[in-house]
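User: Look at the shape:
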Amino acid sequence: QGKSKDRCVSLSAFSYTTGYTIVRRIAEADIVRLRKYEIPIKRVARRLCLDPALIAGIISQESRAGLLLDNGWDQGRHRYGLMQLGGQQQHLYGLWDSEEHIHQGSTVLVLAINDVRARHPTWTWDRQLR
């Protein structure tokens, strides 16, 4: 969509890492639940220049697409939402499975990636994403 590759985060960058196969298998098991969030994931991905598969993979890993949650919370009630946001420094907004909350979690991801890229500009793209 006209955006440069270095500004966008793609799941293909993870294809060389050891855990990719495991992440993919778990996401495939969660695909039915993930379909419920397909439209909001794609909208957020488009706005933040992320690969939708990356967002879906994180949702699958963190909450099994909501399966592991109790009204949006993890068992210890420390993390909230599909992407399992939490911590005292973070103001959580939106319902746990809303597009707004997916956007918040994805924004946290983008900020973290940008921070690693700024601190380690000589690292390869794959290493920065790990």
In short: The first strand starts at residue 79 and ends at 80.
